[in-house]
Design a protein that fits this description.
Length: 352
């Protein structure tokens, strides 16, 4: 099976993903919809051969040991995020096709309250959401905004490097896990010696990395970090509860002091046939900080709804706005809304 014709087909279709699963035909995902590329099932040999060609010895050893390996790939003038993995003893491959041009925050549909947060001189901005919801693209867009407008030093810690930034007004150092640093926690502890103004963290995974990110934000650096969580509010107890119980009060106090906000995002099927971003935003106001410090996370939704002028936006309100602007169908909005029965009235409110 030849790879290049399949990649060219995916590029022509503006696909987001190309999947090579042993025993099934290769598939592409276009605007969230998965479809097969032909009927010929994929054998183990082609993927194994491609990986032998692409990966160096340490990467091959990593794949052999961990049964999975993430890396970046350049083909046909496009950049792919690749994940090789073992399934049933055979090798599979998932490719994420990255945009040719880093989209602006406005193009993505990020609220202005988010771009205002990244212009702050220090603090922690958490970008959360499920896998495949565009977190990396939003992070890249925010870094690109700083690159175009701010004379600052940006250090990124990524696994792997996805979007490549070329220094403009900013000086950008992109560092990759395994090649340039061994683990996120260690890299975050020592990055201060590189005198950054902004640090992007590909993913907060373990308590040591979370603590290092909090400390870095506490010392006046802007930290933009990814976290896997279902919504903006749940991101915060997810951080706190990663620590042992005896430390959680201190972590809550530190988080309340350094947090700028949380962006949570979800991609919906739009009326145009393309995916549309719904963005939930929690801004750390004094009232929010008090609730975080006291551990009253369950009250944060009410705080967001009662103080929208502060820049908050619940996911339900974001979806209602998309429905009101006819960007997504009402049924699609209701499918993603936590409070389906309230969506029509909120849409009407947004329309007015």
């Amino acid at each position: 099976m030849e790879l290049d014709p399949l990649l060219l087909q995916a590029i022509a279709a503006d696909a987001s993903d190309v999947l090579f699963n042993p025993g099934a035909p290769p598939s592409i995902r276009v605007n969230g919809v998965l479809s097969a590329m032909g009927t010929e099932p994929l054998a183990d040999g082609p993927v194994r051969g491609w990986l032998e060609q692409w990966l160096d010895e340490p990467a091959r050893e990593s794949l052999k040991k961990d049964k999975t390996h993430d890396f970046a790939l350049n083909r046909h003038g496009r950049r792919f995020r690749a994940s090789a993995y073992t399934v049933g003893g055979s090798l599979g491959l998932a490719l994420r096709l990255l945009p040719e041009v880093i989209p602006t925050p406005e193009k993505l549909g990020l609220p202005s309250s988010v771009t205002a947060l990244v212009r702050r001189p220090g603090g922690l901005l958490v970008v959360s959401g499920a896998t495949g919801q565009g977190k990396s693209t939003s992070q890249a867009s925010l870094i690109d905004l700083l690159n175009r407008t701010q004379p600052c030093h940006v250090v990124t810690l990524e696994d792997p490097i996805e979007f490549v930034h070329h220094s403009q007004k900013a000086v950008i150092d992109q560092r990759e896990l395994g090649r340039d640093f061994n683990d996120f926690a260690g890299a975050l502890k020592h990055v201060v010696r590189q005198r950054p103004d902004v640090v992007l963290v590909g993913e907060l995974r373990e308590p040591d990395a979370m603590q290092a990110a909090l400390t870095l934000a506490e010392t006046g650096h802007l930290v933009i970090a990814t976290l896997h969580s279902g919504d903006a509010v749940l991101s915060l107890p997810r951080i706190v509860e990663s620590f042992e119980q005896g430390r959680q009060g201190l972590v809550r106090a530190q988080l309340a002091a350094v947090l700028l906000g949380v962006l949570n995002q979800r991609l919906l099927h739009g009326n145009s046939g393309r995916l549309v971003l719904a963005a939930e935003v929690l801004v750390n106001t004094p009232a929010v900080a008090r609730l975080i410090r006291d551990g009253h996370f369950e009250q944060l939704y009410s705080a967001m709804e009662m103080d929208a002028p502060a820049g908050h936006q619940t996911m339900n309100h974001a979806i209602a706005g998309l429905v009101a602007r006819h960007a997504v169908a009402k049924a699609e909005g209701q499918r993603h809304s936590m409070f389906r029965e309230s969506l029509p009235s909120r849409a009407a409110e947004a329309r007015g």
